[in-house]
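Continuing the batch. This is chain 6 of the set; chains 1 through 5 are on the previous pages. Same settings as before, nothing changed between runs. Recording input and output for traceability.
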Amino acid sequence: MIDHQVRVHPSAARLPREEQLAWKLAAVATGTAEAPDAEAAEMAGNRVVDNAAVAVAALRRRPVAVARAQSLPHTATPGASVFGAPPGTRVSPEWAAWANGTAVRELDFHDTFLAADYSHPGDNIPPLLAVAQHTGRDGADLLRGIVAAYEVHVALVKGICLHEHRVDHVAHLGAATACGLGALLRLPTATVYQAVQQAVHTTTATRQSRKGEISSWKAFAPAFAGKAAVEAVDRAMRGEGSPSPVYEGEDGFLAWMLDGPDASYTVTLPEPGEPRRAILDTYTKEHSAEYQAQAVIDLARRLRERTGPPDRVRSVVLHTSHHTHHVIGSGADDPQKYDPTASRETLDHSVPYILAVALEDGGWHHERSYAPERARAAGTTGLWQRISTVEDPEWTRRYHDPDPARRAFGGRAVVTLEDGTVIEDELAVADAHPAGARPFDRDGYARKFRTLADGVVTRRAQDDFLAAAGRLAGLDTAGLDALFPAVDTGALADSDATLPKGLF
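Output for chain 6:
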């Protein structure tokens, strides 16, 4: 691996493009091997399964139905498939990326990578799959693009923190998707370089989408970045340039969005010819909630056996990392995180709510745990108000440990019962994490898909999809269609019919 120092340069310095971060990212993409590392390739197939699982489970949810309705008028040939659309429907790839990206993200239930910043690298897959279908590429091309996108995404998330400047994490996603598309299409490095800069420039937004009263835009935001990356690649392929250098320029990303004129970051990228294995550093979710809450849910299931009925609990204090405390904990200072009428998007970013429900129910469900009547239950609201978080420097240090095997995203819960008894327990990582008690393997991804697809996708269609995903590298162009499991579109028609009409 090579450490690249990235800092602000004045325009008069005329920083050569080969020394710019955007070029180095593009070179990683275009240098991705035709046949990726075997373990990385297998994990890419797992993430295709994971994305489809959470997408089909979300098809009847309003934001997903809206995105699908927006996409369907934009028919195209060859075009790309849309989750939940009638068989044979094809739309233009950027609109397929929009609809499918929203479906994948809506339940906050797919993969994650946490380091200096946050990310959901699986958000790269919908635009890559859409462009692969539209341009007649095969499974091997798609696989190469996925591995390249993950490599770039993980490197940026490790090296450049966005959230401390209240910049939304999709800014890294846009760059990664542009790189993945470059690898998929075998574009010249110079073309990918321009596309990366356009994508970064157009997808930089504030974190207000994940603050206070969180709306459905949280699901739309990565889909927007994917759509913007597809459009950026299209323009770059036509010879159009971009704001350069987008990262290092004196009026650029680092100087004005991040640490300022004296900004300096280290981004570590693979050497030429080095296998792209960053996807193996990422992990998926067993529970439909913010990743820092995964271990908390598993911890609550364990604590429940010792605390007894929740009405015996006087208080719960979760000692955890800076990120967890300030983003989804009481340190966020968002009253909405304790509001029984809050949106689902807000509740899945409220660890006090999640911990309360998990303590009461002994588990978590992607629909029932967020139902309005569940959030407003008297017992839940009372327990919820008695739960708080505090930052513990040791948990913050473990959150940022450079060794993935020692990195921790959980916390230590101190439960005080009404009789004064104190019960303590801690959990470093979720059970499904690679270092957890029950790491997800290929069978785990398949079980997750079957569970979420039940009642939406027939058993035969489930089998067909899993078989196709299992031979991703060997799929021909037509075979990519099989990565969209057949669903009962009639069951979606009623919900789609109630949507207000927009422009399209």
